[in-house]
Design goal:
Structural class: mainly alpha
Order of helices and strands: HHHHH
Low-confidence stretches: none
Largest sheet: none
Number of strands: 0
Radius of gyration: 43 Å
Number of helices: 5
Protein name: 116kDa U5 small nuclear ribonucleoprotein component N-terminal domain-containing protein
InterPro entries: EFTUD2_N
Length: about 140
């Protein structure tokens, strides 16, 4: 079997003539007509003359570009009961960002009359707020 193919997988053997012989020896497949598949009644319906329905009003008038309506108006889309506003300028000033940065607030909470410690409470609060180091209380 390896002798029939080269190192790249291409077929080396003699071309098979079976395709040409097979076409001549095979019987033609039976084809179904529309009347056999769907019946005589539907065949007559579909095979009859087809008439195109004409529009009621055919006009060859030239419509200017300014007069064409490409999109429905807001009143047609939302109805007459709805008030729609179209604003030409942004309401948000350019100095204000669209997505505001997250502000982390720092709180200072002090208790009166704490017992004496070996460290300063301000320094412990600084470590906790900036580095996440918990305050040691004994």
């Amino acid at each position: 079997m390896d002798d029939l193919y080269d190192e790249f997988g291409n077929y080396i053997g003699e071309p098979a003539d079976s395709d040409e012989e097979g076409q001549h020896n095979e019987a033609r497949p039976h084809t179904f007509s529309f009347s056999e598949a769907f019946g005589e009644e539907e065949y007559e319906e579909h095979n009859g003359p087809q008439l195109m329905e004409a529009d009621e009003h055919v006009s060859n008038a030239v419509i200017l570009h300014e007069d064409k309506q490409y999109y429905p108006s807001a009143q047609q889309v939302y109805g007459a009961d709805v008030e729609t506003l179209v604003q030409e300028e942004d309401m948000q000033p350019l100095s204000e960002p669209i997505i505001a940065p997250v502000l982390q607030k720092k709180f200072a909470f002090e208790e009166a009359e704490l017992p004496p410690n070996a460290y300063k409470t301000e320094q412990a609060r600084y470590w906790k707020s900036n580095f996440g180091i918990p305050m040691c209380t004994f």
